[in-house]
Amino acid sequence: MTRQLPQATPEQRHRTMFIIWFALIMGVVTFGVVVVGILGKDEAPGDGLPLLTYVGLGATAVMLVLRTFVPDLVGRNMFNQAMERIKTENIQDEDEVLATYDQIFMSRLIVGLGLLEGAAMLNLVAYMTESQVLSLVAVGILLLVMIASVPTKSKLEAWIRNQMENYNLENQN
Predict the structure, then answer these.
(1) Which of 45, 116, 118, 155 has its CA 20 to 30 Å from the CA of residue 147?
(2) Which residues are listed as membrane-spanning (predicted)?
(3) Residue 9 in 3-state DSSP?
(4) Rounded to whole angstroms, how far apart are CA atoms 106 and 14?
(5) What 8-state DSSP symbol labels residue 40?
(6) 100 with 89: CB under 8 angstroms?
(7) pLDDT by residue (tens digit) across 106-153?
(8) Which tens digit of pLDDT belongs to each residue from 33-71?
(9) DSSP letter at 3?
(10) Residue range 10-16: average pLDDT?
(11) Which of 130, 114, 110, 112 shows the shortest CA–CA distance to 57?
(12) How far apart are CA 145 and CA 87, in angstroms?
């Protein structure tokens, strides 16, 4: 005998997105406090070539560019698959459909924030090893972009509306 778990409400799903967003940001902030506050005291930049700093800055640039389209590609793919499943299985339950859209939006959020978090962590490690302030500037920029990615209800609704319009335009035949 299988028993389905109760489905989360839209408010609960939004709260989950917010918690994930906040946790990914706090991971970078916490590691940054450890690196700067504890490990980075009285460290002068080294005389050698700050190779890891340059790698971190390159990763920052690449991840900022990837952040502009990779989450959308993932989301569009998942959305199209979900729409096909909804059509083939003839799913009429509006709450189930909305929950699917919310999960896709959350996946987009995690992918986008994960790209930025990885680059931020790399820059913090670069600062920890080479004490180049430029690495902290990159972390600050990445954190600002992460903070701007806050998952609001209006962003979610606009994304769903945009995906529906794109899907309808692509499948008008």
Answers:
(1) 45
(2) 20-39, 51-70, 109-127, 133-151
(3) coil
(4) 9
(5) S
(6) no
(7) 999 999 999 999 999 999 999 998 889 999 999 999 999 999 999 999
(8) 999 987 766 666 767 789 999 999 999 999 999 999 999
(9) -
(10) 92
(11) 130
(12) 36
